[in-house]
Amino acid sequence: MKRCLNLLPALLLLTALGFTAQQDEDAMLLRRAEKLHDKIVSIDTHTDTALALTGDSVDLAKVQADFAKLREGRIDCCFYPVFVDQGPLEDASRDSAYLWTRGRMEAIRAYIEARPREARIALGPEDVVKNKKRHRLSLVMGIENGYPIGRDLGRVKDFYDLGTRIITLSHNYDNDICDASRYPQNTWGGLSPFGKDLVKEMNRLGIIVDCSHASTSTLYDCLELSKAPVICSHSCVYAIKDHPRNLTDDEIRAIAAKGGVIQVTTGRWALSWLPSPQVDIGVFCDHVEYIRNLVGVEYVGIGTDFDGGGGMKELEDASRMKYITVELMRRGWTDRELELFWGGNFLRVWRAVEKAAETAK
Fold it and tell me: N or C: which end of the chain has fewer CB within 10 A?
């Protein structure tokens, strides 16, 4: 017993030294991550923060991706699409959704434009690069669920003129545009005839086609029809978690083959069947590395879905985003790979979308 007691101080010392060494490594990696983010462009391609900031009563402490948290997390550009709930496929409901969506977009535009020293609306990739140099946050407008477009292509130009540069074609249910992945009824077998015209119009205007929430058949229709790369703005890997919103290996390969990008999301619902306390940044990075190993680092990025179901242990809000870089550095990712993941890949896609629009004109 005495011998065991004599060993106890030594064991405690070794444990303390190991803990201190881990702390030192973490601090070193965090400093390195912050320096890297100062040089690269970091983009989050999907949040529901637009509605969180323009509601009747806004509590910034509860908003996951407000300006201050994005800056703390070293994010340079964040997409603020307006989420639109699905309604009946009837003219009165479509018209109501259209007017409501315009109102929400005008509200978030006003919110951003009232804070010009903090953030600017970005209408293209070069705006993002310019704003980074001027230490301004870039916010990108969009729509999650094309439902308010109804069957009127003229509304697409209206939304474009308001700043829309991305449209997630559907949400959880089939709409006038396409079949959805969550609760599909196979209404169209993919894109509807109107949906095909919509994709062409989005290509013409320079709006990114987002197939998160869309069915497999819709995704393949978009890949075949679109003249520009197609993305999934907030999805995960089906092989890791077999959720209907996630992407199979074949779907990931198909998106990459057409030059698109898969933006991995952060909600437990998409990442793992494990209990919430066990779903952390490491689990998120497992999805990221799966895509990198399957198709290459050039086809993966991040779309958190903050304020809409995103977030997890160690990544409760946007202020913690830089710790993803810390984890990937710990796994051996190079600065070049991280630059592509955080924004390089998505900027390439966005430029390709703009080029397709110029060609169409």
Answer: N
